[in-house]
């Protein structure tokens, strides 16, 4: 399992002096990007291919408060990916300095062509990079229907 350790900084806290919601999201994003970079998906490659990751949703479940002064470890598991590599699902667990699970995050996203602004499957030249990535025990092949699991429809203001 991939993990990354974080020091909780003053600006990671909220008005209640515990870890702020934004910090959980930032730590998860940093963990994912570190993981991707270490597996060959660095900014140079993404720029060459003119692709980037987009997030459909990010759900966080909080179990215990986290305070400053002790490190926080964030794990990452690849829980699912579509056959063409377009869609991906990662799960993160947050652990305090004693190894207690204090929060959980589920994220689903896809890859986008930054010029066409459309979702795309991973190009063949890089799709093999995910073959070497450890998959979760309950890994599954994602379909477009999986991306609609928590579907919400926008409702515009009547102006």
Description:
- This protein is α+β, with helices and mostly antiparallel strands and 159 residues long.
- 18% of the residues lie in helices and 38% in strands.
- It has three helices and seven strands.
- It has helices spanning 21-38, 43-49, 124-127, and strands spanning 2-6, 51-62, 72-82, 87-95, 101-113, 118-120, 135-142.
- Strands 1, 2, 3, 4, 5, 6 and 7 form a seven-stranded mixed beta sheet that branches.
- Strand 5 (101-113) and strand 6 form a beta hairpin.
- The longest helix is centred in the N-terminal third of the chain and has 18 residues, at 21-38.
- The chain is globular, with a radius of gyration of 17 Å.
Question: What is this entry, summarized?
Answer:
The chain is α+β, with helices and mostly antiparallel strands. It has helices at 21-38, 43-49, 124-127, and strands spanning 2-6, 51-62, 72-82, 87-95, 101-113, 118-120, 135-142. Helix content is 18%, strand content 38%.
Write the layout of secondary structure elements.
Layout: E1 2-6, H1 21-38, H2 43-49, E2 51-62, E3 72-82, E4 87-95, E5 101-113, E6 118-120, H3 124-127, E7 135-142
Pfam families: 4HBT_2 (PF13279)
Protein name: Thioesterase family protein
Organism: Galbibacter pacificus
């Amino acid at each position: 399992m991939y993990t990354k350790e974080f020091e909780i900084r003053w600006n990671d806290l909220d008005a209640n002096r515990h870890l702020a919601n934004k910090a959980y999201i930032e730590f998860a994003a940093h963990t994912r990007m570190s993981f991707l970079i270490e597996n060959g998906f660095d900014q140079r490659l993404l720029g060459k291919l003119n692709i980037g990751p987009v997030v459909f949703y990010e759900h966080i479940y909080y179990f215990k408060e986290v305070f400053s002064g002790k490190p926080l470890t964030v794990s990452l598991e690849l829980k699912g990916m579509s056959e063409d590599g377009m869609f991906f699902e990662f799960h993160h667990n947050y652990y305090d300095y004693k190894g207690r699970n204090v929060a959980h995050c589920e994220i689903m996203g896809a890859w986008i062509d930054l010029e066409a602004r459309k979702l795309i499957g991973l190009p063949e030249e890089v799709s093999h990079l995910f073959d070497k990535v450890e998959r979760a025990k309950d890994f599954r092949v994602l379909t477009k229907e999986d991306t609609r699991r928590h579907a919400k429809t926008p409702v515009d203001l009547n102006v």
